[in-house]
Design goal:
- The chain has helices spanning 23-39, 42-51, 72-80, 93-102, 137-150, 164-177, 181-193, 197-206; strands spanning 61-66, 84-90, 108-110, 123-129, 151-160, 212-217, 221-227.
- By secondary structure, the chain is of the alpha/beta class.
- The chain has one domain: 3-Layer(aba) Sandwich (Rossmann fold).
- The protein has a seven-stranded mixed sheet, with helices on both faces.
- Strand 4, helix 5 (137-150) and strand 5 form a beta-alpha-beta unit.
- Helix 6 runs antiparallel to helix 7 (181-193).
- The longest helix is centred in the first third of the chain and has 17 residues, at 23-39.
- 47% of the residues are buried.
- GO terms for molecular function: methyltransferase activity.
- InterPro entries: Methyltransf_25 (IPR041698), Methyltransf_Superfamily (IPR050508), SAM-dependent_MTases_sf (IPR029063).
- Residues 64-152 form the Methyltransferase domain.
- This is Methyltransferase domain-containing protein.
């Protein structure tokens, strides 16, 4: 099993190939992913890392969630970080169509995270949750470089960590709690495609990240947090 995970898988996920049968199947998958992220504390962890960059009395800040998916994180963050006005970006028109139905109060645009239609340092904080494992190393480097470009204060990336515990946990969680075909297939494949924390840190350095922290959060997740210098 350890040898099986030594190299990350290059096989795409069904979601990446848009190999879903209909939008209702996709909607069910998005709901599953949001439910897991809330229950596993991913949303709470991301907002804590964001608010650590803001003064206690801060107001009027702009947050960008890249790879926003269903916009469930933004809906959560709007309550947890009232000082931040959130905008979402996702590359999939189908996902955004469902996101707008599920959260009509959230503003989101369709764009590539590697080519954001934003000026340098135009947003205060950037989050990127469960996106890196969808990308190959050159794409990941390009994305991390772009996130650094548009963020004025902080970039927070959270993703799955490739290891045996995460693989077994994903298999059990998706089979015990969902019958959705996408959830069951992609939940396991996401771990097989994931970077380790050390691999992600190396890619961040190649993207020009200098002042950043890498941290493991239990066996399932890691975070990369970039603290921008305003000097």
């Amino acid at each position: 099993m350890r040898g099986f995970l030594h190299q990350r898988s290059l096989a795409p996920e069904l979601l990446d190939e848009r190999a879903y049968r209909d939008l209702e199947e996709l909607r069910g998958n998005l709901r599953d992913m949001a439910r897991y992220d809330r229950c596993l504390g991913v949303f709470a962890r991301a907002t804590r890392l964001v608010t650590a960059a803001l003064p206690p009395t801060a107001t009027g800040y702009i947050g960008l969630d890249v790879g926003c998916g269903s916009c469930d994180f933004i809906a959560y963050a709007r309550q947890a970080t009232p000082a931040v006005r959130w905008v979402g970006v996702d590359v999939s028109p189908d996902v955004l169509r469902l996101a707008r139905q599920m959260h009509p109060e959230v503003f989101a645009i369709c764009a590539w995270g590697m080519r954001l239609p934003l000026a340098d340092a135009s947003v205060d904080v950037v989050t990127c949750i469960h996106v890196l494992h969808h990308l190959n190393p050159p794409e990941t480097i390009a994305l991390l470089r772009e996130l650094r470009r548009v963020a004025r204060l902080r970039v927070v990336c959270l993703d799955l960590s490739r290891n045996v515990s995460a693989l077994v946990g994903a298999w059990l969680l998706t089979r015990l709690t969902s019958r959705n075909r996408l959830t069951r297939a992609d939940g396991v494949q996401s771990v097989r495609r994931a970077y380790t924390a050390a691999e992600a840190a190396d890619l961040a350095r190649q993207a020009g990240w200098a002042h950043f922290h890498t941290r493991l959060h239990g066996p399932f997740h890691y975070s990369l947090t970039l603290m921008q210098s305003l000097a």
